[in-house]
Amino acid sequence: MRMLPLSAAAMAALLAGCAASPELVSCLQPNRRVAVEVTGSKEKPPAKPGAKPGRDNVLLKTMAQGDGAWDQNGAALKAGGQTELDKIVSLIQNGIKKDPRPVNIGSVIITGHADRLEAENNANLDEQRAKAVQTYLAQKGLDPKLMFWEGKDAREPMPVTKFCAD
Q: For residues 133 and 47, which has the higher predicted lDDT (pLDDT)?
């Protein structure tokens, strides 16, 4: 009967040691990301002649995340992150799937994240990353007046969505 709790404790210690290894922490890339959420609408043609056009609401989300987008402790947006952001810019300008109507942007919310270790070394890293994304999107033609950014550093971690490939 005592063997089960002992083996469970041994397994927990083993897993804790693996989770604390720098290789695994780097591999999981838990919060090295910036989330972008675009809200807006598309004008819908009137159903009947003489009627007012309607609107379809639109919500688009993407993330610039991981080693492809950010260096550890870095705020410069890399090519992998630019590629992800280019996809959402294309959807805004060219439409979604077979619907070529452009999106009329209502707002763009940019949320920067850093992991706990990065936040200890640079308290503003999450904000710097969010500002880098805002600057990049403005260069791509999005109105900076409609963009809002915030930093969440390690206070509100996001679930791990990117893992190492074996």
A: 133
How far apart CA 3 and CA 38 sit, in angstroms, is: 54
Residue type, 81: G
Residue matched to tokens 């791990």: 160
Instruction: Say whether 33 sits in a helix, a strand or coil.
Output: strand
- Paired tokens of 52: 């007012």
Q: Which residues pair with 150 in a beta bridge?
A: 111
pLDDT tens by residue, 53-111: 778 888 889 888 887 888 888 889 999 999 999 999 998 888 777 788 888 899 999 99
CB contact at 8 A, 77 and 69? yes
CB-based contact 125:63 (threshold 8 Å) = no
Whether the CA torsion 47, 51, 53, 57 is positive or negative: it is negative
